[in-house]
Amino acid sequence: MSRIWKIAGINFDHMHMGDLLRRVHAHPHAEIVGICDEKAERMQNAIGAFGLPPERVFTDYRACLEKTRPDLVILCPATAEHGLWTRRVAEFGVNIVVEKPFAASLAEADEMIAAQRSTGKLLAINWPTRWSPCYITMKRLIEEGAIGDVLNVHHYGGNRGPLFHRADKVVCEPTPEEKRASWFYKKDRGGGSLLDYAGYGATLGTWFQGGRKPLEVTCTMDAPAGFEIDEHSVTVCRYAHGLSTIQTRWGTFSDPWIHQPQPKCGFVVCGTRGTISAYDYATRLRLQSAERPEGFEVPVDEVRPPYQDPIQYLLSVLEGGPFERGPLHPEIARIGQQIVDSAARSAREKRTVPLSD
Q: Exposure check for the chain: N or C terminus, fewer CB within 10 A?
């Protein structure tokens, strides 16, 4: 690379900030020039983990941006505040990556796109499973025609719950009181398993579908007693060519990065000439083809830079590389948001709805 890229992390609502900063710390051509959160205590783990001096730690985002002048800002706010924080940072004319999901609504996603378009800078939405070798391999096989034309994409996604782990997947056990206090469990802040996880199935599913959109969406969800958000949702998307499903679950029996629960978290894609299944953290996929209908295993591809993680990839884009029409691109991520928006409306109105636009 031609230079050292300056990166700042702003807003630590989502624990994935720690994971993304670790990627920056590990990159030989990237530097954490600043971190910022209104609650200083939420930054302590990052300060210690990455050896950040006091002059790189801020509680005022404007001071952080003015003093560090980053090339790229990582945003990890509560879902319902993605638009607010994107607009705030866009005023400084800086490239932005927002940790998933895109937004709490399609209108908010469009506001984010418009805010960054006016600056001419990059807007990306990071979906962590985009970097999983099994899904990179799945996409390659689809593009190579291994299963013919895609007809159906089925996704089951989730974990024990957002408070059962911290950055770097450190295990913890939340109390009911901690749940009620967390933004993840507050409706007005974008909480709930649907907004947290349906975007994976909707956005990566759109990638697997080659950018095609459904015609209509049907969703139902279940909320635990005493809480205002859902912990389980089931969405059916009707396309011109068939049905696809997205299921989200907080409360799986185990976390998939430790032990795959049942149902397994991952994707099954069906086509006109075969099927592929791939599950989170898998080292092998299962493929059925017209030539081998009994099915066989396919080892995952060896993924090389810059496709191993979002920081590698986005810095390659800033260096002049292609910004592919994939899950991080606002065009594909917006279709995913249309599906999630429609699913939320369907669940509220208890009916099938046309795709939101």
A: C
Closest CA to 106 of 336, 341, 298: 341
CATH of domain 5-126: 3.40.50.720
Place of tokens 């800078």: 121
* CB contact at 8 A, 163 and 229: no
- 238 forms bridges with which residues in the sheet? 216, 243
pLDDT in tens, 73-104: 999 999 999 999 999 999 999 999 999 999 99
pTM (2 d.p.): 0.95
- Rounded CA-CA distance 241/236 in Å is 13
Residue ranges per domain, the chain? 5-126, 130-303+324-354
3-state secondary structure of 2: coil
Specify whether the CB–CB gap between 99 and 17 falls below 8 A.
yes
Task: For residue range 233-248, list pLDDT tens digits in order.
Answer: 999 999 999 999 999 9
